[in-house]
Structure formats: structure tokens, C-alpha cells
Amino acid sequence: MASKSFDQLDGVIWFNGEFVEWADAQVHVLTHGLHYASSVFEGVRAYGGKIFKLDEHTERLHASAKHLGFEIPWSVEEINQACEESLVKQGLSDAYLRPVAWRGSEMMGVSAQQNKINLAIAVWDWPSYFDPAERAKGVRLDISEWCRPDPRTIPCKAKAAGLYMICTLSKHAAEDKGYADALMYDWRGRVAEATGANVFFIKDGVIHTPTADCFLDGITRQTVIDLAKKRQIEVVERVIMPDEMSGFEECFLTGTAAEVTPVSEIGPHSFTPGTISTMLMDDYTKVVNAD
User: In this structure, is the dihedral angle defined by the CA atoms of residues 139, 189, 152 and 213, taken in order, positive or negative?
Assistant: First the structure.
């Protein structure tokens, strides 16, 4: 993590088609995205100077905007180029990239059809989402009191800023208790995901993961499923109920920030990071660093 406030980092940010000094990348206090959460974003990582699965991330950014009823006025190709240039401008090879699009301040109110759509891309050094020592032995998760909502109440396929409010609440509550993160159930009481990562369980050599029907089918999730299948490991996407967790042997999280992170505990349920989790961690490290 950065050692100082994120608005005080050094370098430049790509902002609506041009590079501006980091401190000058500002928006007005009456920006619609701030008041009404009309904002979408991506989290992308670069390894060894190469951005991993950039096309997939940028395509999802465009799709998220459409779910929120607006269109980003830069193409996938233009955004990809801006991401590549931003990485070079920041002089980083291993980095985190944050493209974000939002409605501006031309109209203030629920309606915002005439608001300008803005886009910015920031790049910074971000080595590990979880504490490396905790990650090595498996992170500990609390169980959140908040649930992933019914898809009839939110645009659940969008990576939208407003959908993370309950994630922040859940993670803060978990950290206050000494946990690294929290597991969230969905509105039906089924196992869903962590606050910013998908979850996988292992039993008898088979991987089980919740069906992504009310939360994002993460790009890292898809990557790890493919890696497991290449190892001839069976992956079952299905409904998982909370009482099943006590019967699983291993557990791990996946996400752009989390990468592949073993889990040692979820509430009263314990897991032992083992062969499959370690294998997939190694496989993921290799694929993101591949030439």
C-alpha cells in the first residue's frame, strides 16, 4: 500500500484524454457520481510491465457503464492504449491500475441524462492486498451481517461503485474483530463471496464455488477455473449453503487484488491450505508473469 494519502502520490493521471499532474486530477463536489453512485470502475494489475487481461477488464468497464445507463466515450482500444501509456508514464512494471468512469456535475438530481461522462486512469504500486504473513498461512474471514442483494434490486453484473458500500461496511466490521476480510451470504442465505473476491472450496480433490448469479463472475475467478481444468481438477459451480463449509478441507479467494489467497478460517469453520490451493497459487503466478 502507499505510505501516504492517495491524493498525494507522485506522477500523472490520465484524465479525459490527457495526462494531468496527480494532484490536479480533481472533480467538483456536486459530481453526480459522488451523490448518486453513477460510477463504474475496474481493478487491473500489471506484472513485469505487462497488463494482465486488459481487454477483458476494459470490455467489462464498458459493459458496467451500459448497466448503469451510460456509454463511455472512449473505445476499448483507446482505453487500453491509455492504460499502457499510464503504466509507462508512472515508470512502474508491477502495478495496480484503476480506470474509473462517472457522470459529471452538469445536472444535480436523480436524473442526469445530460451529464458528461468522465474517465480517468490512475496507476500506482500495490504489492499485496492481504498481509503477506497472513496470506502464507491462510487469511481469516468473519461472516458479514450484510448480504448480496437480489438481482432485481441492483445491477449485479456491473462493477459499480455503489454496490461496494456494504462491502466496505463488512470489511471494516471484520477488521475491527481482527479478521482480514468477511464472507457474504446472498439474500437467500447462500454462500456468495468475500467483500472484493470470489470464494472457492475443496473437498476430496474437487473444487466447489458458488454460482455467480448475484455477484460478479470475476476475471480472476474465470482464470483460476481454467487453470484448474488444465490440471484435470474438477470444478463444480453450484449452490453452497453455509452449513456445508464445515465439510470442506481447503478454501481460497480469487480476485485481481487478492490474486489467489488461501483461507484458514471463516467464522467457526476451519480450513488447512493444501496441495490444490498451493498449486493454483503457483499456476496463477506463472500465468500472470508469462511472456
Answer: positive
268 with 165, same domain: the answer is yes
Structural domain containing residue 251: 132-288
Measured on CA atoms in the order 45, 46, 48, 53, is the torsion positive or negative? positive
pTM: 0.94
Cβ contact 75:101 at 8 Å: no
Catalytic residue among 159, 171, 177, 203: 159
Max CA distance (Å), the chain? 57
**What total of structural domains would you count in the chain?**
2
- Asked if 17 and 161 sit in the same domain, the reply is no
CA–CA distance, 20 with 120 (Å, rounded to integer): 10
| Contact (Cβ atoms closer than 8 angstroms) between residue 69 and residue 85 | no
Domain at 111, CATH number? 3.30.470.10
Which among 124, 152, 180 is the end of a domain? 124
Asked, for residue 60, whether it belongs to a domain, the answer is: yes
Residues 6+ away with beta carbon under 8 Å from 35: 108
Give yes or no: 286 in active site.
Answer: no
pLDDT digits (tens, 9 = 90+) for 124-174: 998 777 777 777 789 999 999 999 999 999 999 999 999 999 999 999 999
